[in-house]
Amino acid sequence: MIETASLRYFREVARQGSLRRAAERLFVAQSAVSRQIAALEAELGVQLFERRARGMAPTAAGRLLLEFADDTRARLDALRAQIHEYEVLHRGHVDIACVEGLLSGLMPAFVERFLHEHPGLALTVSAFGSHAVAEAVAEHRVDLGIVFGGSPRRDLLELALMEQPLCAVVRPDHPLAGRRRCVLADVAAYPIVLPNRSFGIRQLVDRVRAMHRLELRTVVETNTLAFAWRLVLGSDRVTFLPLDSVRAEVADGRLVAVPLDEPLLSATRVTLVASASRTLSAAAQTAAECLRSMMAADHAPARRTVRKKGTQRSDFRRSQRSIGLLDSSPPASTPRKETR
Predict the structure, then answer these.
(1) pLDDT band for position 82 (50/70/90)?
(2) Beta strands 218-222 and 192-195: pairing type?
(3) What CA–CA distance (Å, rounded) separates 110 from 59?
(4) Quick one: pLDDT at residue 161?
């Protein structure tokens, strides 16, 4: 209990006007109540009750303390009610950090669904580079993060994956727009707009370029993906983005996303992560479940090995259980079939 025993006993004596009746209501010995009242009077240095023939009545100091005790009890009751509201998801707040590429596809859809299903909850969604997202999750500045690629830190748990293959993004009348797919060498003839080296996209493109010993004519570097695709709209420039980053523009016919036929660039993914040292709140657990279901529905890898940096696991169950997303009871055993 948050309320101290002495304050609780004091309130009951003041309400009953008698040590004996207070002890009966509290199911304790009368001497225990008497000792608590004496200790409280000694601590405050004042007499709290007047002893009368028909019982006990609070002194002026006692009435002040009773007012404080009643106010404290009311505030405690309100606090318990608020905590209960958080647990049953009538109230709560979830902080999520993600890479910028998800702000045009997955995240708006998630926000709409989550707030519709849980109108009492609130969200904060921030966009950073992958390393900054991972750092914010590890330092408990946010509840959940979505990074490009796998987790860059050992102190994070990977909760879900979603494929995000990179595409060459061009305007509709670009010479590459009619291709069903292309390779990096096909793009080398055109001016390139690239995100800067803080982006996982840029690091992968640089790796493939080095593998093929290609020279790319980079004319603009930027720290925002939205600026990159806007520079493509009215020119022959090309940029590299997941379809999710320009889904609305592709649907409107303003841009075309040509899949890249390069193993490293077509196998890219984003990963939902949480801190390994933190138990998620009920609201954050619900947000994680919602994100997991949406990521699974939108091209989650079918049989991807999940890693907590430095370890290997066949699925997500240990990650989910450790932060409260799964029941910790072991699965029922399956009888083994005898071999003859």
Answers:
(1) low
(2) parallel
(3) 60
(4) 94
In a domain, 318, yes or no: yes
Contacts of 195 (CB under 8 A, 6+ apart): 201, 202, 221, 222, 223, 224, 225, 228
278 against 186, higher pLDDT: 186
pLDDT for res 129: 85
Q: How far apart are CA 125 and CA 136, in angstroms?
A: 12
Measured distance CA(169)–CA(244) in Å, rounded = 11
Structural domain count of the chain: 3
What is the residue range of 15's domain?
5-85
- Asked if residue 231 lies in contact with residue 167, where contact means CB atoms within 8 angstroms, the answer is no
Question: Six-digit token pair at 240?
Answer: 């590299």
Domain presence at residue 295: yes
Q: Report yes or no on 28 lying in a domain.
A: yes
**What are the pLDDT digits (tens) for 117-144?**
999 889 999 998 888 999 999 999 999 9
- 155 and 295: one domain? yes
144: which strand partners?
96
State the pLDDT at residue 88.
64
**β strands within 135-262, DSSP E:** 144-148, 156-163, 166-170, 192-195, 218-222, 238-242, 256-259
For residue 330, is it within any domain? Answer: no
Residues in the chain: 340
